[in-house]
User: Fold these one by one.
Assistant:
Number 1:
Amino acid sequence: MKKAATLPKEQLMDGIASFLKALADPTRLRILHALQGGERCVNDLLAELPCSQANVSKHLALLRAAGIVEFRRQGVQIYYRIADPAVFAICGVVCGALERSLDGRREGLKMGKTAFAAGARA
C-alpha cells in the first residue's frame, strides 16, 4: 500500500526531472531565447543560431516532446512557439540563482585573496 501511495510523487519527480533535463542544454536555451520574441520557423532559428538544420530540428523535437514548445503548420513551413511562457520565469529564477552564486564566489575569492595577501605580509 505504501509503495502505491508514493507512485504519483515518483511520477511527478520523474516529470520534473524530464522537464528540467530538456532545459539543460545551451542550444535548447538559445532556441527558447529566440522564441521569446514570438514564433519562428526552423529557417528563422538557423539565422539566429550557430547550428545545422538537423541539430536545430533535433532540439526542437526534444523541446516539443517535453511540452515546452508547440508548433503549427503553414504550407510547407512549421512554426514553433513557446507552449507556456512560465518557462521564462523558470529560466529567470535559475539566472538569478546563478548570479547570486557567482557573486558569492567572487566575494569568496576576494576574501581568499585578502587572506593570502595578509599572510604574505606577516
Number 2:
Amino acid sequence: MPKIEIQSFFYDLIHCKNKILSVFEKWDKKYDEDERGALVAGIRDCPDAELITLLVNIQKLATGYEQIKELVDKAEQEQVDEAFVEGDPDDEDF
C-alpha cells in the first residue's frame, strides 16, 4: 500500500463530510414519513442558502477525493519507480 503524508485539507474533508451527513440525518428525521423520500423532500423544501451550502460541501468533498486520488497515484508511481531502479541485478543480463 502506498504511503501518503497527511495533508491539511484532509481535516476540511472530514468537516465537509460531517456537515453533509448532518443535513441528511436531519432530513431523515424530518421527512421520515414523506412519500417522496427523505432526500427528495429535503432538497425540495430546503431554503436556497442551505441547499447551496450543502452543494458547496459536496463539491469540496469531490474535489478533495480527486486530490487524494492524485496523491495515491503519485505514491504508487514512486513505488514502481523505486522497484524498477532497485531491480534484481540478474535482470540486467537481458
Number 3:
Amino acid sequence: MLSVAWSCCAILVLAAACAADAEEGVIQGRVVTRTAPSHPIVHQAVHLEIVERAASSVLDTVTDAGGRFRFTRLPVGGIRVFVLSAEYGGVRYSGERLALLPAAPVRTVDLAVYEPSTDRSVLRPPVMFAVVEVAPGALRVSVVQRLENPTDRTVVSSPRDPLVFPLPPGARSVRFLAGWVDPRVDGGTITDAFPVTPGRTEVAYACTLAARQSEVAVPWVFPDGAGQVDVLVADVGVEAAADGLAPRGAVEGPTGRFLHWSGGPISPRRGVVLRLRGVPLARDPWPAAVAAGLALILAGGLARSFARARDPAAPA
C-alpha cells in the first residue's frame, strides 16, 4: 500500500508539473523596420516589461539572424500586461499592451521600427485644437497640437535643436498633459526633442492667462504655419470673435456649450487672435489639479471628436 501511495504522489507531482508547463506563456515575433525596403533587424536588443499591480520587471533578449525574438516561461492569466520595446536609431519604440490568457498563452507579434531622419521639411503643417474656459480673473487654455509625418522614416531632433511650440503671450502655470518627452518652457515657447514617427503624433498642454481687464486678446503664432486651427470657447455669456478664423456655430462638450471657430491653412509666421469681451474680473478660484484634469478631458475628448468629423477613416 505504501508503494502505491508513493506512486500516486509521483503521478500527481508529474501531472502538476505538466499543467504548469502547459500554462507557461510565450511572446515571440520579429523586429522589423517599416522603412522601405522593409526587413527584419538582426542582433537587436528587445525588452519585455511585465507590468503588474504593485510592481514591474523587465526581461531582455536579442534577435537572431532572422530578426526573431522569443520570451518563454511567462506567467499566464492574472492582472498583468506585457509591453515589448526596442531602441533603434536613437528612438525607443514600444508595441501594444499584450495579455496572456489560459485560452491563448502564446502571442506572436512584430515590433515595428523605422529608420531615422533629421529632415523636418517632410512634416505637414501642424493641426491645433484649443479649448478656452472662462473663470473670474483668468482664462484656462488647453491645447492639443498634432504633427503629421507622411513618410516611412522617423523625424528626430535633439536638445540643441528641439521642436518649438509657441505659447500665448502671458501664459503661466503651464502643465504638460500628454505626448512630451522632456518639455521645457523657454522664452514664451515649449521646446522638446521628441521623435515624430510615421503617422500622427500629438502633444497636449494647458496654461492659464490672467484677465486683468474685461477685454482679452489671445494670439497664437505659427512659425511653420498650420494646416487647421480649431478653437472652442465656453459659452458663458462672454462675447467672442477670432481674427483669421471663421465662426462655425456652437457645439456641446462634456461640460457644456462651446462656441466654435476654425480656419486653415495658416501661412508660416502668421497667426490667429481670439478676442473676448466681458470676461469677469476676480481672483482665480480654480484649484490647479481640477483645472488640469478638466483641460485634459476637454482637449482630448473634443479633439478626437473633431478629428473623426474631418477624417471619417480615423480610428476611434
Number 4:
Amino acid sequence: MMIKRGFVSLLVLAAFALLAMGSFGKSDDEKAKEEEAKGTAKIGETISFEDSEWVVLDAKDVGSTLKSNNQFQEDRTSADGKFVQVHFKITNKSKKEEMLFLPLNLIDGEKNEFKELDERAFYVPAKAKTLGMEALPVGLSREFWTVFEVPKKATNFKFRTRKLKDDSDTKLVELGF
C-alpha cells in the first residue's frame, strides 16, 4: 500500500512538472518568430542582453578540411560538407561568475540549425579558447572560437547569441556568407 501511494505521488508530481514546462516553454516556431522580429546584427556590432554582451569579431568558411592545432589529432575532412569558424567575444554583465553550458547554434538561410563540433578545440587557432567549461568572470570579457560542419550548398549563415543562463532571449548575427 505504501509503495503504491508513493508511486501515485510520483506520477502526480511528474504530471505537474510536465504541465508547468509546457505552459512556460515556447515552441521552436514561436522562438523563431520572436528572433526574426528582433532583426539581426552584423559582425562587429555589440548585442546586449541583461546579463551579457556579445560581439562576433569574425566568421569565415574554412572549406572542407580543418587543420588540427594538435600534433596528435589528425586534420578533419568533410566529404559532402564544409566548416564555418566563428570568433566572438562575451562580456559578463551579471553579478556573479557564469558558465555557458548550452551549445551554440548556427542557422542557414533555409532555417536549418547546426550545433558546434564536439572536438572544436582541436580545430581553432593554436591557444585560442572554446566555450566548454570556461568561466566568465564578472565584468570581464573573454574571446572564444567555435566551428560548425554544414552542407556544402548551405549559405546565408546567422550565429545565435543569447543570455548566459539560458536561451530565453536570443539575437542572430548575420555572418555575410
